[in-house]
Design a protein that fits this description.
The complex is a heterodimer of chains A (573) and B (475).
Chain A (H helix, E strand, L loop, with lengths): L6 H10 L3 H4 L31 E3 L4 E2 L5 E2 L2 E3 L6 E2 L1 E4 L2 H12 L30 H17 L11 H17 L5 H17 L2 H12 L3 H4 E4 L2 E4 L2 E3 L2 H13 L5 H8 L6 H12 L4 H12 L20 H21 L4 H6 L2 E4 L1 H7 L10 E4 L12 H6 L8 H12 L23 H10 L1 H15 L13 E2 L2 E2 L3 E4 L7 E4 H10 L2 H16 L5 H14 L6 H8 L3 H4 E3 L2
Parallel strand pairs in A: 5-16
Antiparallel strand pairs in A: 1-4, 2-3, 6-7, 8-9, 9-16, 10-11, 12-13, 14-15
Chain B lengths: L2 H13 L8 H12 L4 E6 L30 E5 L17 H11 L10 H4 L2 H7 L5 H9 L8 E4 L11 E2 L2 E2 L6 H9 L22 H25 L4 H19 L42 H17 L5 E5 L20 H5 L10 H25 L2 E2 L2 E2 L4 E6 L14 E4 L10 E4 L5 H11 L21
Parallel strand pairs in B: 1-6, 1-9, 2-11, 3-6
Antiparallel strand pairs in B: 2-10, 4-5, 7-8, 9-10
Chain lengths: 573, 475
């Protein structure tokens, strides 16, 4: 990476900006602990930036006080700017953030409302993440509990309590806000402290700061407001980029190295961003983040509460469901972090993680242990994510398989194709009949002229997965009749044609450029918490096109997203 | 001269200024003066269709679904045949899908996209979905009068079981329901563990002694919330348009938190509000089950959850913790959990919602749908009966309440036009119940406008002005 700005020059800029107090490192923090008086992140220090592949330099260069040329980054395409945003931390991100800020061994366990899962299957779209009365109360309760157990350092003479509070704010406050506090913010919180001190004592006054900072909107929201550089274009500050990166890759606030990079305003070029992205990929917590992406992709966000009719599936106990969920997580981890990490493997890996509880479901010998262990499966029966029981069960009815839901999942969820809304009144499928297979009963949808238009696009896909029952168990017969798992897929860009069974369907998907672009699109939505705009979709296509020939490394997809205009630039709506 | 009129005249003499007569504050004060007790607004959300009546059938009848309401007929006004003018006018993209579009329409009134006509205009589908809603009637009332009670409004029930039926909005921001009965109990009645079902009622957490520690806690809490509120205001000044509505909601949430601070020397809880009803004790949950662990999203919990939320909602009103309540038993489009297994019904609610109940009423799906909806009607009837059987002054709590009950769709047709609506309670004497109104040509906007203004708002219209044809006469 071409690092064109030194920490020294950054600090000099900081001093020239008249904020010596913060830059001098009152808390003993690392040099270059830059801040600005606006509270919005970095004032751009002197630097020359090398544009990344998705960013270009632009006219309008200026000369910094030290004589270095400052070239603001500019977006490649005007229509590729996403809106400024305040993205409220998700419940998981909030817990991780409290843990990180307080240095806890575990995330706080207090109640937090589960995030709503939108119609699009995502639970992290910024537009839906607000703070209603219930959530505000829950934040208050968690913050109060955290403050109670927070270990307050003593403030020994000759230091005055106010000085200790200032040091505390510069350190703890910066961790909470993910940037240094501005002078004004320090003053506000100093007043909060002194008011509390007047009523109580140093320890309680410090706890008051903790309790307040953990409910602050500057803690609860990820700021993506940027600063104006060129007309309507706003460039995210390095601190904003640091948060963007850390929550994307680790679902947690920036670690010290990332904060150091932000302090040096070193997150303003594609190269700088990529360097940090690749470092964060190696963090253990990246597993959680990518699991979340692929659970969204697999339609699994509701799986942990998925109920089945236990008169039909008596083995579907809470323990089995939990094992199914854990097994899928381990499969995802294995593909991403032990295997090649690519889309092809995600759909073709012929193994699963099995324990005693799952052995029957997979039809393999009982390993005699509760710990999940990797086990090769019959490659004619299982192949990757699509044939994971959790995925199949998620797209089934409570009491049977559901070819329509499965076909729709492949069409909409894995190929990103749109289907018209279903009609208001849907002809009922015949009730379970012990003389018929599910396929025979559902065949009506494809043959009824009123239904055929849409159902020909989805049912034949789902029929190809009829070898798996409503909880994803492999079967060759149903109601004493052989299962017909012949499927057909039409209307796609590149995988039209017949197939037989989930393994062949998975192979088709693995070879599909359309399916790969769909995953890339989902990754964009997950990364930015919104849909891609028209110009942004072009960037998505570009990433997919570039990475698909080598199998579409999912980790590289996300790294590539950090190199797009969408990552660094914003505009007001 | 009636007591109400005496109070009204006395109030007017005290107020003096004629101009005041037109203000919302006056109207609210008048409503209270007339009733002596606070006027309450309660929304009951029946997901997935409210009537088997075919379009074009002239009169409502207490059909299979609504049988549990038959015994409450004298307490209700049945508003029949109102809805959107015609299916052809259901043109905006979000209205085409009954679950979501209807959910937004049900309590907010039919509305166009507020300058945001669809995903392409709004920055994506999710945002368009939210922009497509203004503010629902409960939040309008809460915004105007919520300061009078400890909670501006309360909203209980299930939403996240795979459903799509967001129903409560404030300036385009959706509000989530409280889904955990045990947590709700703590929120309303203190942090102690909920009492076992068989115990005697526990006193509500109140009557905090005016000790110095209470004063300290109040001062710290107030100072904290002042700081947080100031930050919200500061951020709002630099945020984008959509984020500003988000921050408005956040600010409201902080103000509500402030009301929960224990004011030194007050009768606990700090928030304003009298205790007009009976004894304000924490409710005994009549389900026979311990609330701990109850979850609307868990199969089999629905009866116990319903009983718990009915009891909690009733007592919250009885104790005047709030005057605005919304109850919903499950979400429209709920497709995750077969919640009615306790009745021997196998499928998920969403499956029944798409069944053809009108033209094929004897199919298995239609029959299961009927059974589930009738059970839900029964839960609502239970709640209404709680109010009806609680004396309040010379009448009952129901007399001083406005209960609005409807659904996001007529039936399996998945449109919100026409949609059957029930108004229960006398609205503090404003409504004459025990009748049916043929509201052909009116929209649910008109019904909501009538209710909102009876609550003391002074609105010119609800939802989109173009879908308002004028308030109804319910008196």
């Amino acid at each position: 990476m071409k690092q064109l700005v030194s920490k020294q020059s950054a600090r000099r800029w900081c001093q020239l900006g008249g904020i010596l107090l913060l830059c001098a490192g009152c808390t003993g923090a690392a040099p270059g602990n830059g801040a600005n008086s606006s509270g919005n992140g970095n004032t751009p220090p002197s630097m020359t930036m090398a544009p990344g592949p998705g960013m270009s330099t632009a006219p309008g260069s200026t000369t910094s006080p030290d004589g270095t040329t400052v070239v603001p980054p500019t977006p490649t395409a005007a229509d590729a700017l996403g809106p400024v945003a305040l993205r409220r931390l998700t419940a998981a991100e909030y817990r991780n953030s409290v843990q990180a800020v307080l240095g806890l061994a575990q995330p706080p366990s207090g109640t937090l409302a589960a995030e709503a899962i939108g119609k699009n299957g995502f639970d992290n779209f910024g537009s839906a993440l607000n703070v209603d009365g219930t959530l505000a109360g829950q934040y208050a309760a968690i913050a109060a509990d955290a403050a109670k157990v927070f270990t307050v350092s003593t403030c020994d003479a000759p230091k005055a309590a106010a000085d200790c509070a200032a040091s505390f704010l510069q350190d703890f406050g910066k961790r909470a806000f993910r940037r240094p506090l501005t002078t004004e913010e320090i003053q506000q919180y100093q007043k909060l402290f002194s008011d509390a001190l007047a009523a109580t004592n140093y320890e309680r006054a410090t706890r008051q700061l903790v309790e307040t900072l953990l409910q602050s909107p500057k803690f609860l929201y990820r700021f993506e407001l940027g600063q104006s550089v060129n007309g309507a274009t706003r460039t995210l500050t390095s601190y904003e980029v640091a948060s963007e990166l850390s929550y994307l890759f680790t679902s947690s606030p920036p670690d010290p190295m990332l904060m150091a990079a932000a302090d040096a305003n070193g997150l303003q070029s594609a190269t700088q961003i990529e360097t940090e992205a690749r470092r964060l990929l190696k963090r253990p917590t990246a597993k959680d983040s990518f699991r979340h992406l692929l659970r969204i992709y697999g339609g699994l966000l509701r799986f942990d509460g998925l109920a089945k009719d236990t008169t039909v599936y008596p083995e579907y106990t809470p323990e089995l469901r939990a094992a199914m969920s854990d097994s899928t997580d381990q499969f995802i981890d294995s593909v991403l972090w032990e295997g090649p990490g690519d889309f092809n493997t995600l759909f073709t890996a012929p193994y699963a993680y099995v324990n005693t509880a799952l052995a029957g479901l997979y039809g393999v010998p009982d390993p005699g242990q509760s710990t999940l262990a990797k086990q090769m499966l019959n490659p004619l029966e299982r192949s990757g994510l699509l044939t994971e029981p959790s995925v199949l069960a998620s797209h089934s009815k409570p009491f049977e398989s559901f070819p329509i839901a499965r076909g729709k999942f492949v069409r909409v969820g894995l190929l990103c194709e749109n289907l018209p809304a279903p009609p208001a009144v849907v002809p009922e499928t015949p009730a379970p009949d012990p003389t018929l297979t599910t396929r025979e009963r559902f065949a009506r949808h494809s043959s009824d002229p009123a239904c055929a238009g849409c159902h020909q696009l989805i049912d034949p896909i789902g029929f190809g997965l009829e070898n798996y029952d409503g909880i994803g168990k492999y079967r060759t017969t149903e109601n004493n009749k052989p299962v017909d798992s012949s499927g057909n897929i039409t209307g796609t860009l590149d995988i039209n044609g017949p197939y037989s069974g989930g393994v062949e369907l998975s192979a088709k998907l693995a070879g599909s450029a359309e399916a790969k672009e769909c995953l890339t699109t989902k990754a964009f939505q997950w990364a930015f918490g919104r849909d891609a705009g028209t110009g942004e979709q072009a960037a998505v296509t570009g990433i997919s096109t570039k990475l698909a020939p080598a199998g579409l490394d999912i980790r590289e997809v996300v790294v590539a997203l950090t190199q797009t205009d969408a990552f660094l630039f914003r505009t007001f709506e | 001269m009636s007591q109400a009129l005496i109070k009204r005249r006395s109030l007017l003499q005290q107020l003096g200024a004629a101009a005041f007569l037109a203000t919302p504050v006056f109207r609210s004060a008048l409503a209270e003066a007339q009733t002596q007790f606070p006027l309450r607004l309660i929304l009951l959300n029946l997901p997935g269709g409210i009537s088997q009546k075919s379009e074009g059938v002239p009169n409502f009848y207490f059909d299979t679904l609504a049988k549990p309401f038959a015994s409450l007929e004298s307490d209700m006004i049945i508003v029949d045949n109102a809805g959107a003018p015609a299916a052809a006018e259901i043109s905006t993209w979000y209205e085409l899908e009954g679950h979501g579009g209807g959910g937004r329409t049900m309590f907010g009134g039919k509305i166009e996209g507020q300058g945001c006509g669809g995903p392409a205009d709004c920055g994506g589908e999710e945002k368009a979905y939210l922009y497509g809603t203004a503010t629902t009637i409960d939040q309008l009332v809460a915004m105007q009068f919520g300061a009078k009670t400890r909670f501006d409004s309360l909203y209980f029930g299930s939403l996240w079981g795979g459903g799509q039926g967001d129903t409560i909005f404030r300036n385009g921001q959706r509000i989530k329901p409280e889904g955990d009965p045990a947590a709700t109990f703590s929120k309303l009645f203190g942090n102690g563990a909920p009492p076992p079902a068989t115990s005697t009622p526990a006193p509500m957490a109140s009557a905090l002694p005016p000790d110095p520690e209470t004063a300290v806690l109040y001062a710290l809490g107030k100072s904290r919330l002042d700081q947080l509120s100031a930050e919200i205001v500061e951020i709002k000044g630099i945020a984008g348009k959509y984020e500003q509505t988000k921050l408005d909601l956040h600010l409201t949430s902080l103000r509500e938190l402030e009301k929960s601070l224990a004011v030194p020397g007050s009768a606990g809880g700090g928030g304003p509000g009298a205790t007009p009803g009976g004894s304000c004790t924490a409710p005994v949950i009549p389900s026979g089950a311990n609330m701990a662990g109850l979850d609307p999203a868990t199969q089999g919990d629905l009866p116990a959850v319903s009983a718990a939320f009915n009891a909690l909602g009733y007592q919250a009103l009885n104790c005047d913790l709030t005057r605005v309540l919304c109850l919903q038993w499950l979400a429209s489009g709920d497709g995750l959990v077969p919640r009615f297994g306790f009745m021997g019904l196998k499928d998920v609610h969403h499956g029944w919602e798409h069944s053809d109940q009108v033209s094929n009423p004897n199919s298995q799906g239609s029959r299961e749908y009927d059974a589930a909806q009738m059970w839900l009607f029964g839960q609502m009837a239970n709640f209404i009966t709680l109010l009806k059987t609680t004396p309040e002054g010379s009448g009952t709590m129901l007399d001083n309440s406005i209960i609005y009950m409807s659904s996001e769709m007529t039936n399996g047709n998945h449109i919100h036009s026409p949609v059957l609506q029930f108004v229960a309670g006398k609205g503090g004497g404003a409504f004459k119940t025990g009748r049916r109104i043929d509201a052909t040509g009116k929209n649910n906007n008109d019904v909501l406008l009538t209710l909102a203004n009876t609550m003391g708002l002074n609105l010119p219209f609800m939802g989109d002005q173009k879908y308002n044809t004028g308030a109804l006469s319910l008196g």
